[in-house]
Amino acid sequence: MKINEKVQPEIAAAMKDRDEHRLTTLRMMELELKVIEKQEALTDVEETEILTTLIKQRRELLEAFTKGAKPELAERERLEIGMIAAYLPQVSDEDDIRKLVNGAIAHLQKDADGVRPGLRDLGTAMQVAQQWIRAAGLQADRKLVSRVVRAELSK
Predict the structure, then answer these.
(1) In this predicted structure, what is the pLDDT of residue 72?
(2) Which residues of 88-121 are buried (b: 16+ CB within 10 A; e: fewer)?
(3) How many domains does the chain fold into?
(4) What are the tens digits of pLDDT across the range 45-66?
(5) Which of 35, 33, 23, 85 is nearest to 59 (CA)?
(6) With left for phi above 0 and alpha for psi between -120 and 50, is residue 91 left, alpha or beta?
(7) Exposed, middle or buried: residue 14 (CB in 10 Å: 0-12, 13-18, 19+)?
(8) Short-list 85, 83, 76, 91, CA closest to 10
(9) Highest mean pLDDT among 56-65, 80-89, 94-103
């Protein structure tokens, strides 16, 4: 079931519960998904990327509100992050990512006639690793993936 299809009944439930904050957040998610969908139907990966961007924006606002001593606004952003994150695939742990990164590096090594990629191949390795992670249906923090790829390439 697509994320947009999951959001529709949640909007109706939020309206019945008169939960204004949840309703506003769900409508914002629905709008973001529909604006881009008008061009063509979104894939699951694209939907996930849109929601990940929304979470990133909220984290930046959360940090700004925390530094600006506005705890009520920071808490609101924290709640929105939780609501949006509920629609994302489960986040992978470092061991799962390491296995996929090693597979991606082995794939690159096979393509390079057996020459193991090094740190100079970081960009290519990151792209392939991200593709392998998405293909596995997992969600991973890019900083974590970068750290693991860097560690594996430097071996």
Answers:
(1) 92
(2) eeeebeeeebbebbbebbebbeeeeeeeebeeeb
(3) 2
(4) 778 888 888 989 999 999 999 9
(5) 85
(6) beta
(7) buried
(8) 83
(9) 56-65
Of 51, 85, 119, the last residue of a domain is 85
Q: Encoding tokens for residue 151?
A: 């560690």
Domain that holds residue 147: 94-153
- One-letter amino acid of 71: P
DSSP assignment of 92-124, as one string?
PPHHHHHHHHHHHHHHHHHHTTTPPP-GGGHHH
Residues 69 and 112 occupy one common structural domain: no
Residue type, 136: A
Q: For the domain that residue 7 is a member of, what is the CATH number?
A: 1.10.1510.10
Helix (H, G, I), strand (E, B) or coil at 91: strand
Please check whether residues 107 and 132 belong to one and the same domain.
yes
- HSE at residue 26, side-chain half, CA atoms within 13 A, is 19
Please indicate, yes or no, whether the overall pTM of this predicted structure exceeds 0.85. no
Please state the rounded mean pLDDT for residues 56-82.
91
